[in-house]
């Protein structure tokens, strides 16, 4: 079932409640792609594009699994994670984010998420994270980001949060403004 401005897609016949999954992401193309991929893998999919839609979907029937984006247009995806945990203790939630950092990963896990993945994550990565046992370690990524890339991503995130204001971004990063301008002028490292 797709919670998307009144559009509904019926669950596939023969899919049990234990294969139900809620996908919450405000990136509609990504949400649609992931939803189709999960349906092809036998899940009964409910999609939501905001915190409000995610909370409504959770209230209508708590799924066995959920994939929730951390930052949504109308709030924080961790609100949905909390609501899911309150409604169903055994729900397995994976949190996705485009801006990974340790503090939010720790918060997500404390709220009940079983894993925390950087976007874009494909359906196989999501399923692996949802299905691994509580004592199993996650596989290391095949192509992890380099330290330079992680630094660049962090700078870009702060720059966007400061409404692309170079002076404010430099102040928040404790960096000289000209140094920041040089970094921003370069292409992203690999």
UniProtKB/TrEMBL annotation:
Indicate the secretion signal residues: none
Taxon lineage: Bacteria, Pseudomonadati, Pseudomonadota, Alphaproteobacteria, Hyphomicrobiales
Q: Which UniProt keywords apply?
A: DNA-binding, Phosphoprotein, Transcription, Transcription regulation, Two-component regulatory system
Task: List residues of the Response regulatory domain.
Answer: 20-134
What name appears for this protein in its UniProt entry? Two-component system, response regulator RegA
- Segments crossing the lipid bilayer: none
Q: Which SUPFAM superfamilies match?
A: CheY-like (SSF52172)
GO biological process entries: phosphorelay signal transduction system
> List-wise, which residues carry 4-aspartylphosphate?
69
């Amino acid at each position: 079932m797709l919670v998307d401005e009144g559009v509904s897609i019926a669950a596939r016949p023969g899919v049990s409640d234990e294969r139900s999954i809620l996908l919450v992401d405000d990136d509609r193309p990504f949400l649609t792609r992931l939803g189709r991929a999960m349906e092809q893998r036998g899940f009964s999919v409910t999609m939501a594009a905001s915190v409000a839609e995610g909370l409504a979907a959770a209230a209508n029937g708590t799924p066995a699994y959920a994939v929730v984006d951390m930052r949504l247009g109308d709030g924080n995806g961790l609100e949905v994670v909390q609501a899911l945990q309150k409604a169903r203790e055994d729900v397995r939630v994976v949190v996705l984010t485009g801006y990974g950092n340790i503090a939010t990963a720790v918060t997500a896990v404390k709220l009940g998420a079983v894993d925390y993945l950087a976007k874009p994550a494909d359906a196989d990565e999501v399923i692996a994270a949802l299905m691994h046992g509580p004592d199993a370690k996650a596989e290391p990524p095949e192509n992890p980001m380099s330290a330079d890339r992680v630094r660049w991503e962090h700078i870009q995130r702060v720059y966007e949060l400061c409404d692309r204001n170079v002076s404010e971004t430099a102040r928040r990063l404790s960096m000289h403004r000209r140094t920041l301008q040089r970094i921003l002028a370069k292409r992203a490292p690999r």
